[in-house]
Write a structure and sequence with these properties.
8 helices; 7-stranded mixed beta sheet; alpha/beta; Spore Coat Polysaccharide Biosynthesis Protein SpsA, Chain A; 11 strands; two-stranded antiparallel ribbon; 246 residues; 23% strand; globular
Length: 246
């Protein structure tokens, strides 16, 4: 993989409102689990990518994050208008970059390095412009679903809030982790729309936009179990802490 160009975008701008109990107002990714900030666990799993090649998207109380991780590159998302909007902000640090781009979440500390590496490998070997990490989990998670046609080919994703009852029965979840061709992704970011239940720009719309433009989009499906738990509540923070200490 050393001969391939690879950078990462780590989404870390969120406030984590549901975590702000007992007067704790830290940014979500700076909440501590197993002795380290959530973001520290994520960056540890990404240490196969140089810190100067990792763009961390910050927003709420950004100084806490930038001061804790001084070796990394930062982009500011001034308003939290969704994952697609966060990636648009990251492109301020990716001018003229034309390699592969791993996009992941700073509040998902359980994803293992081997999972990230498998996704990058799949992306490169298949010659995709976008590769989505999907998976099944025994844990209930209100995540977007991968939608496939009768032949099993990817035809889109639907967020749980926008899903029909039938779509909610789909077991294949979108992890929120992707590898994109940076140049291809930059072409469709401006096409994202916010006409959904949240009024946000979803990165989940980008793969289908790429597919509709003739780019090759693939899905790496794995049994992810606890790996895809994102921390949004105190209960999830306790749960990932227990799992990290095993």
């Amino acid at each position: 993989m050393e001969n391939k160009k690879l950078k990462a975008i780590v989404l870390a701008a969120g406030k984590g409102t549901r975590l702000q109990t007992e007067g704790n107002t830290l940014p979500k990714v700076m909440r501590i689990a197993a002795g380290k900030p959530l973001l520290s666990h994520v960056l540890g799993a990404l240490d196969f990518i140089k810190s100067q090649d990792c763009v961390i998207v910050v927003g709420y109380k950004k100084d806490y994050v930038t001061e804790a991780f001084p070796d990394y590159v930062f982009a500011e998302q001034t308003e939290q208008l969704g994952t697609g909007h966060a990636v648009m902000a990251a492109f301020s640090q990716l001018t003229d970059y034309d390699g592969s781009l791993l996009v992941c979440c700073g509040d998902m500390p359980l994803i293992r390095q081997e999972t990230y590496l498998a996704l990058v490998k799949e992306h490169e070997e298949k010659g995709n412009s976008c590769t989505i990490l999907s998976g099944t989990s025994e844990v209930y998670l209100p995540y977007g679903r991968i939608v496939r046609d009768e032949k099993g080919d990817f035809i889109g994703m639907v967020e749980e809030k926008d899903a029909s009852e039938k779509q909610k029965e789909i077991k294949e979840l979108n992890s929120g982790v992707y590898v994109f061709d940076a140049k291809a992704l930059s072409q469709v970011l401006s096409m994202l729309k916010s006409d959904n239940a949240q009024g946000e720009y979803y990165l989940t719309d980008a793969p289908l936009l790429l597919k509709n433009k003739g780019y090759k989009v693939g899905v790496l499906s794995r049994r992810l179990g606890h790996e895809i738990i994102g921390v949004n509540t105190i209960e999830q923070l306790r749960e990932v802490e227990e799992l990290l200490q095993k």
